[in-house]
TrEMBL record:
SUPFAM superfamilies xref list: S-adenosyl-L-methionine-dependent methyltransferases
Record carries keyword Transferase: yes
Designated name of the protein: Protein N-lysine methyltransferase METTL21A
Keyword entries, A-Z: Methyltransferase, Transferase
UniProt-recorded Gene Ontology molecular function terms: methyltransferase activity
PANTHER family per the UniProt record, alphabetical: HEPATOCELLULAR CARCINOMA-ASSOCIATED ANTIGEN, OS05G0564100 PROTEIN
Amino acid sequence: MKFTDSPVIELAVRHGVLSLQQDNGSMHVGTSVWPCSLVLVKFAERWAPPLPPNTPNPYSDLLDFRSKRAVELGTGCGVAGMGLYLLGLTDIVLTDIAPVMPALKRNLKINKPVLGKNLKHSILYWNNLDQIRALNPPFDFVIATDVVYIEESVGLLLSAMEALLADNGVVLLGYQLRSPEAHKLFWELCEEMFVIDKVPHDHLHPEYAYEETDVYVLRKKKKQ
Ligand SMILES: C[S@@+](CC[C@H](N)C(=O)[O-])C[C@H]1O[C@@H](n2cnc3c(N)ncnc32)[C@H](O)[C@@H]1O
């Protein structure tokens, strides 16, 4: 397991290395880097085109990021968004609550040389419809990692996902069970709104596959 409580975490993504500064002592969970984000990025790195010729790829369509728009919810230090950017998801906006912005901005600045620019970022509280509208949805991708841990926020998170996602869009979710109550409610509501596919564990990156961490692909249910 590459997750560590050291103040700096490095993550190699194709031709670049991201360097993440985290502060585990802060009162905001968003200032730490959570394993789900690394697992999602390394899963995408394993399968996002281009792969060597004649490599069978069950995810070639899903992870074809060309000309796609994306938003990340609860980005924290920005690992998932930055990693997917390096894999070709170049039209992406990273969002989180206001107190997490300094940590996000610091990490975007540190990684500007490898990213080549300062990625778009914005304050977004999941219950704030004005902030959701200001992002100009719909998006082809909604990215979220380790965001299901407060029961009271679960409904808001799912509503934000639904409001931001295009009808034929995809949520890429890095998931770890944090709270049994939040877990139960999230998957109950999720099933009503989305078609849920779980990535088999042996499709994750072998060095970034932890028993307790999963990647899910969510698609909006077709309206009857
Ligand atoms: C456990 S952290 C995960 C951070 C990052 N995605 C990662 O995997 O390293 C959960 C994130 O969700 C954000 N979050 C929680 N509730 C939120 C809300 N109501 N609106 C927006 N963001 C929220 C937190 O600020 C935090 O950055």
